[in-house]
Write a structure and sequence with these properties.
- It catalyses: a di-trans,poly-cis-dolichyl diphosphooligosaccharide + L-asparaginyl-[protein] = N(4)-(oligosaccharide-(1->4)-N-acetyl-beta-D-glucosaminyl-(1->4)-N-acetyl-beta-D-glucosaminyl)-L-asparaginyl-[protein] + a di-trans,poly-cis-dolichyl diphosphate + H(+).
- GO terms for molecular function: dolichyl-diphosphooligosaccharide-protein glycotransferase activity; metal ion binding.
- Its EC number is 2.4.99.18.
- With 818 residues, the protein is mainly α.
- It folds into 3 domains: 375 residues, no CATH class; 64 residues; 187 residues, Rossmann fold (3-Layer(aba) Sandwich), CATH 3.40.50.
- The chain is built from 38 helices and 13 strands.
- The strands form 5 sheets. It has a 5-stranded mixed β-sheet, with helices on both faces. It has a two-stranded antiparallel ribbon with strand order 1-2.
- Helix 12 crosses helix 22 and helix 15 runs antiparallel to helix 16.
- The longest helix is centred in the first third of the chain and has 41 residues.
- The radius of gyration is 32 Å and the shape is globular.
């Protein structure tokens, strides 16, 4: 009798207080989401507070320049813009070779604010675009994780993403790159896909296609979406989890999403002609066959169904074979089998180093080290396995997608350090699930063991949560073969079974979700101890910018504070945002003797070029600095960071690797007036051109065979000291970097290579130094004009007329490429 009374009390409590409870919970969730958005925005503006509102890195300067053109000329001029200041003398069609999502977004923000009479410069709009979209990405993570494991897990995942260092590294204020908006589009697309999968709503399916379209406009990483979702759909079909909701979630995405993607100029027919998209079409055919089989199963008798299935499977196999044959014919004509170079380097990590050295030369395309994971996702690396286990308890369509997402992103992040950015949302989602489930177990365990809580109160909460969960599961596990007639009877049957045995179900749920009080207390103490130990190690070895204290003192201090993993995570993220990722690449700084020293050599050099050279002069450098030169110096460059023409880049690499005279011939043939190099030997800046020089040799040698890497190595080692090879000591890069370097300290000691250079005293014959920045980081040279050389041989005894005729019939001009 007591069990029945407690069950009735629980039902009455559920009916009367459910509305108010949900309303209060929703308001609290929205308020927490607002705070998370403010946190995500605030933690990313350290760069503006510490330095100034400035664009970071290299690629963002091109995006900023394009956004300036868009706001001045308009959208139609943008689509038809041919830029003759890049890749001279080839030029570049900007509208058809860029992903326009970022520039259109920042341009729209600038236009909207100015329409509201809020005067804002284009640069300011570009600087703060990434922090704004980081808040949106946090909210999108809430949407994704909420659809998998509830609002608690969603709020936890959103909080983790707002502060994860991997995402902060590409979304600080001033990091105006494609990833600034693309990560939001990625998470939002996945969230809408899961929402459609849970609800079967065509409205959310349409929104999902539009989100995918925005992702295609924003970043080339959209191919990850159009391959991951088909993998999940195929997994559901193979494991027998097909439903009409799965069909609605996938079919509109392929049809509408592909049509929208093909309308983006930079993608065009690649949306249907490249191997990155073929998996989605093949799975689309498979799901059509499966849907048709389930449809005829409901309208035919079992005997006729077997005959129809045989026919449908035969036709389906024939269609699949025909499609596969067409795809094979398409990819067979391509030397890369229809895959792009970056995609092949992901599938085969050794491909880029073998065949495309220009991709392998980029530092963010290198594989990460284990400390990189600890730096970029921190304690989430230890929470991810627990989150994966929680996704299997129980396994649903949504949780299986999260498991597949974390598995694929973990693989790709292991191939390319840049893709740690794609791993971050998956790690935050799974970690949020793990923390939410653990918190739920601990709170239930403590609640069951408290002596002041009555059994009736516990039963009320357990019964209400159980009923809500059963209703949720019943709505998400709808089978396609169920008809509208037998659903009410099954529901009533479940309700009767639930009313008959409420005590047994509650007891079983308690045993599964509750821990003994001693185990709960021990687990919490272990978490506190691990958090304290982590903080001790972190402060002792990395120092967080503070002075190092004795280890014993730190142990006592942080044991008293009782910091847990969440506090550790917050401390690490704030340090990463304030110190590791806030400094712009164009302004370098370091602390010494309690003072902040700033190196502003890059902007000093670009300002000199802008004010002291003609507007039509051509400037040559390595491709890393092309975007900055065009945007900040407003001068024509030979190559830039787009790297679309490997031969052009190899030409510059060949010039840098050649002797001075041969290099002058190459640059003169390209109408170059100025050449600059980045040199860090004086101040210890490691990312200079001498350290990048071997990549110039490899890229140049890949096109021009007379450039051989072995000629620049001494017994297989790269040296610039007295043991360096003559080819190395006489190449243009060496001379432009170390010209007059001995005048700085009398020894010509290179602080980056930590040795004295081999060739200290030499003169330039075809180049002249015109400007060197304050810290010798940027060295600018001008090509000397060609001499008035007499072609052919003349004799003094011949008359002048004979000399003139002889000068006209001169020998052939030497080929500058050999």
């Amino acid at each position: 009798m007591s069990a029945k009374e407690s069950s009735n009390a629980a039902l009455r409590y559920l009916n009367t207080g459910n509305t108010l409870q949900h309303a209060f919970g929703d308001v609290l969730s929205y308020f927490i989401l607002l705070l998370i958005g403010i946190l995500a925005f605030s933690i990313r503006i350290f760069s503006v507070i510490k330095y100034e509102s400035v664009i970071h890195e290299f690629d963002p300067y091109f995006n900023y320049r394009v956004t300036q053109f868009l706001t001045k000329k308009g959208i139609y001029e943008f689509w038809n813009w041919f830029d003759d200041r890049t890749w001279y003398p080839l030029g570049r069609v900007i509208g058809g070779t860029v992903y326009p999502g970022l520039t259109l977004t920042a341009g729209s923000i600038w236009w909207l604010l100015n329409s509201l009479n809020i005067p804002l410069s284009v640069e300011t709009a570009c600087v703060f675009t990434a922090p704004i979209f980081s808040a949106l990405a946090s909210w999108a993570t809430y949407l994704l994780t909420k659809e998998v494991k509830g609002a608690g897990a969603g709020l936890t995942a959103a909080f983790l993403l707002a502060m994860v260092p991997s995402y902060i590294s590409r979304s600080v204020a001033g990091s105006y790159d494609n990833e600034a908006v693309a990560i939001f589009a990625l998470i939002f697309t996945f969230g809408l896909y899961i929402k459609t999968l849970n609800t079967g709503s065509l409205f959310y399916a349409t929104l999902n296609s539009l989100a995918y379209f925005y992702m295609v406009c924003s970043w080339g990483g959209y191919t990850f979406i159009i391959n991951l979702i088909p993998m999940h759909v195929l997994l559901c079909v193979i494991t027998g989890r097909y439903s009409s909701r799965l069909y609605i979630a996938y079919a509109p995405l392929v049809v509408l999403g592909t049509l929208l993607a093909a309308s983006v100029p930079v993608v065009g027919f690649n949306a249907v002609m490249t191997s990155e998209h073929f998996a989605s079409f093949l799975v689309f055919i498979i799901i059509q066959v499966v849907a048709f089989v389930y449809y005829i199963k409901g309208i035919l008798s079992p005997k006729m169904f077997k005959v129809a299935v045989t026919l449908v499977v035969s036709v389906g196999l024939a269609v699949c074979c025909a499609v596969v044959a067409v795809l094979i014919a398409l990819v067979a004509s391509s030397p890369t089998k229809g895959w792009s170079g970056r995609s092949l380097s992901l599938l085969d990590p050794t491909y880029a180093s073998k065949y495309i050295p220009i991709i392998a030369s980029v530092s963010e395309h290198q594989p990460p080290t284990w400390p990189s994971y600890f730096m970029d996702i921190n304690v989430l690396a230890f929470l991810v396995p627990a989150g994966i286990i929680a996704c299997f308890l129980p396994l649903s369509d949504a949780s299986s997608f999260v498991v597949l997402y974390i598995a694929t992103s973990a693989y790709f992040s292991g191939v390319m350090v840049r893709l740690m950015l794609v791993l971050a949302p998956a790690a935050c989602s799974t970690s949020g699930i793990a923390l939410s489930e653990a918190f739920d177990v601990f709170t239930r365990s403590i609640k069951f063991q408290l002596p002041g809580v009555s059994k009736a109160e516990i039963d009320v909460g357990e019964t209400s949560s159980a009923i809500a969960e059963e209703q949720n599961v019943a709505g998400k596990t709808e089978k396609p073969e169920e008809t509208s007639k037998d659903r009410p009877s099954r529901k009533k049957k479940k309700e009767r079974e639930h009313e008959e045995k409420p005590t047994k179900a509650k007891a079983e749920k308690k045993r599964l979700l509750a821990l003994p009080l001693v185990a709960t207390v021990v687990s919490l103490l272990l978490l506190v101890f691990l958090g304290a130990f982590y903080v001790v190690c972190k402060c002792y070895f990395i120092k967080f910018g503070f002075s190092t204290r004795p280890l014993a003192l730190l142990v006592c201090k942080y044991r008293i504070l009782g910091m847990d993993a969440e506090d550790v995570y917050k401390l690490h993220c704030v340090w990463a945002a304030a110190e590791a990722y806030s400094a712009p690449s164009v302004v370098l700084s370091y602390r010494a003797h309690g003072r902040l020293h700033v190196f502003d050599d890059f902007r000093e050099a670009y300002a000199w070029l802008r004010h002291n050279t003609d507007v039509n002069d051509k400037v040559a450098s390595w491709w890393d600095y092309g975007y900055q030169t065009t945007a900040m110096a407003n001068r024509t460059v030979i190559v830039d960071n787009n790297t679309w023409n490997n031969t052009h880049i190899a030409t510059v690499g060949t010039a840098m690797s050649s002797p001075e005279r041969a290099a002058w011939d190459i640059f003169h043939s390209l109408d170059v007036k100025y050449v600059f190099v980045i040199f860090g030997g004086l101040i210890g800046y490691p990312s200079d051109d001498i350290n990048k020089f071997l990549w110039m040799v490899r890229i140049g040698g890949g096109v021009f065979p007379h450039i051989k890497e072995a000629d620049y190595l001494k017994d297989g080692s790269y040296r610039i000291d007295s043991q360096a090879t003559p080819t190395m000591l006489n190449c243009l890069m060496y001379k432009l970097s170390y010209y007059r370097f001995v005048e700085t300290d009398g020894k010509a000691y290179d602080k980056v290579r930590r040795t004295e250079i081999g060739k200290k005293y030499f003169k330039l014959t075809h180049f002249e130094e015109v400007f060197t920045t304050h810290h010798w980081m940027v060295r600018i040279y001008k090509l000397k004009p060609p001499k008035n050389m007499i072609r052919g041989k003349t004799k003094k005894s011949k008359p002048k007329t004979s000399s003139r005729s002889s000068s006209r019939s001169g020998t052939k001009k030497k080929n500058p490429w050999h």
